[in-house]
Amino acid sequence: MPSLTAARLFKGFRHKEIEGPHSTIPEDEFFDAVETGLDKIEEDRQLRVRLKFQSQQSQISTTSSVIINQETDDGNQQSEDFGTGAQARTHKLWPEIDKICTEQLYQARQGVGDSGNGWQLFADEGEMKMYRREEEVDGMVIDPLKSCHVVKGVTAREMCHYFFDPAYRNDWETTLEDVQIVDNVAPDTLVFLQTYKRIWPASQRDALFWSHMRKITDNLDHGAHDVWVVCNHSNQNEEYPPANQGKCVRIYLTVILVCQTYLTPGKDSKTATRDDLTCKITYCSTVNPGGWAPATVLRAIYKKEYPKFLKRFTGYVLDQCKNKPIMY
């Protein structure tokens, strides 16, 4: 990181050297500072993971039989209509939730090379491929992202379970500072207010959105055992905390995670082991970060951070599931 940026980080900075319409900080220094902040957050996460692993290994070595007996199948803890939206249908948000989920699932199922629609490959790492399409609104980058990935050893429901359930979110979403449930619509539908860690010189961000987890029962791809999705979409009404009223700039987002389970031919849900599981993942997002961050900086950060995010999340789910009963 340039010495000038380092000096500002540790000795303070003038008002015009933070994010805003009158900021004087050069774009390269802005990027260096944000990149350094994100790297520090990732280092802290890796340290926590190592310490947690060491603690677990110590417990296993002395009380392994107790730990094994305490393992439970999360699927047995959820009602039969979980993932159907049955309990959310009477909520005033349901028409929007149902409409957005249907639209986003349709878009996720579309190819990235159809009709010259502008998708550009920007990351290609084995089974993981990431595409973006350059778009701006009022000068703000809102590039849609589409990722395709294949992971062995987990099911679609497991992948979506760990993405949806707030109990696990701090383990894999490293920039989170706080997660609040502001509306418990139903077991499969929640409204969240998430606050993210401040990364100088950018302003602190928050996001208010509903999240819905659903099992898809129609138009399954050939050979797919099941399909689960999680859809997140920003929402604002008078009952929820207003945007841009305090220190945080509000992020507006639309995200869908689509996961499909495939089993080894000849296997079914009763005979399959984790070696027989393949999960195909499609992740689509459109995020308006708000504020005044430079477009070139945002695109450079997205290019670096999105692949890291998807690998970190899928790796986390694999680690969580490897010694547990399979959840369909």
From TrEMBL:
TM ranges? none
| Primary subcellular site in the record, as a coarse category | cytoplasm
START domain span: 117-313
- What CDD domains does the annotation carry? START_STARD11-like
PROSITE patterns per the record?
Answer: START
The residues forming a coiled coil are: none
Keywords attached to this Swiss-Prot or TrEMBL record, sorted alphabetically, are: Coiled coil, Cytoplasm, Lipid transport, Transport
Gene3D superfamilies xrefs: 3.30.530.20
Q: Where in the cell is it found?
A: Cytoplasm
Q: What range does the record give for the signal peptide?
A: none
Q: What InterPro entries does the entry give?
A: STARD11_START, START-like_dom_sf, START_lipid-bd_dom, START_lipid_transfer
* Identification of the protein by name: START domain-containing protein
Per the UniProt record, the source organism is Aedes albopictus (Asian tiger mosquito)
